[in-house]
Amino acid sequence: MAVPYPQIVLFGDSLFQDAASLEDGFGFQAAVQQQVLRRFDVVNRGLSGYNTSNALKLLPQIISPPGPGVPKLAYLFILFGANDAALPRPVNNQHVPLDKYKQNLVSIITHPNITAHNPKIFLVTPPPLDELKTSEVDLGIRKHRVSASYSEAVRQVAAEHSVGLVDLWKAIMDYAISKTPGFDGSKGNLGDPKTRERGYLESLLPDGLHLSAEAYQVLYDVVKPHLGQEWEGTNNEQRVGYVLPDWKVAPWLEEDVLKP
Fold first, then answer.
1. Tens of pLDDT along 7-38?
2. CA distance 177 to 123
3. What residues does the SGNH hydrolase-type esterase domain cover (predicted)?
């Protein structure tokens, strides 16, 4: 049987599905894979359009409990909420009420298929919503302040259940403000109709909702420090944790190759 690599799973909506894209020169999934190469497989389970209710229903088809041939789930990053926060619609409704959203997040992180692996779990907040942009195309079904309340709910669930937090909302907003000369954040946020200013969110959220390559770089900068603590600071940092041994410390591999 082939040796299974432990997995880092990106479980979320289109914001994780699109993390595999290399269209603009940077790919979040590729960057994470490069960082943990030979130690973990990075598995993308981003599902465009999904909300937490959809995700919870199909979770057993996405993450299996431990068993023969089942790779260990070592890290789990969860990013849902952009669709849950959409306002209710009579058809094609993605909305999940805030209390239900929090309940769904708890049900996901405590699901037996997940807890049996004892992974390191990180909840990722949805990024800011640039309502000034989304209102041009989505007939007002997404609101900046509503979306922000779902990001706050993620912070609360992470704190209440002692799991890791990746505050993508804050990282994107702080970065956008730093790149928007003269903007006074004390008066509100970029992308909020109250301030009427998109600022640098225009480059980070081209359609007001999804991340640009630069925004994925911001996400990676936040995620990066959470990975690799298993081998950082060791005497042989470059090889510790390899699933298959480095060729320099596995002379038997060469011997096998040289056998007639």
1. 999 999 999 999 999 988 899 999 999 999 99
2. 24
3. 10-218
